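To the wet lab folks,

You asked to see what we're planning to order before we commit. Fair enough. Below is the target structure as tokens, and below that is the sequence we designed to fit it. If anything looks off to you, flag it before the synthesis order goes out.
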């Protein structure tokens, strides 16, 4: 079955970087479209980044130029490199995959930005 597990969250100062990881199983990872979402306190869940079947990528305007999504097929892992973190970035970040008409989510990993 599809399983997604995020890691790498924590507290970081503004302007610094973190890299999130999502280990995937139960899917054909090398050609799977993978997404990152985030949900801040009191906010709706929002899409952040996507990597497609041939590693094309796209980003939400709020993170474009600062975040990078990538894939390591050998490790069955999708990454979200987050640079120049800003006060609006804190949220629970979720890894996402859709297959067979169903959405699959990891449990999330918390990001806090604090000086």
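Sequence we intend to order:
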């Amino acid at each position: 079955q599809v399983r997604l597990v995020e890691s790498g969250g924590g507290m970081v100062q503004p302007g610094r970087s973190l890299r999130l990881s999502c280990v995937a199983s139960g899917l054909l990872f090398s050609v799977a479209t993978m997404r990152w979402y985030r949900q801040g306190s009191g906010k709706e869940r929002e899409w952040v980044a996507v990597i497609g079947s041939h590693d094309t990528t796209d980003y939400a305007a709020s993170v474009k130029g600062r975040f990078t999504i990538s894939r390591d097929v050998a490790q069955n892992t999708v990454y979200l490199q987050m640079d120049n973190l800003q006060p609006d970035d804190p949220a629970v970040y979720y890894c996402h995959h859709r297959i067979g008409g169903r959405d699959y989510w990891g449990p999330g990993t918390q990001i806090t930005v604090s000086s």
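Structural context that might help your review: The chain has a mean pLDDT of 96. Residues 37 and 47 are 4 Å apart (CA to CA).

Thanks,
Computational group
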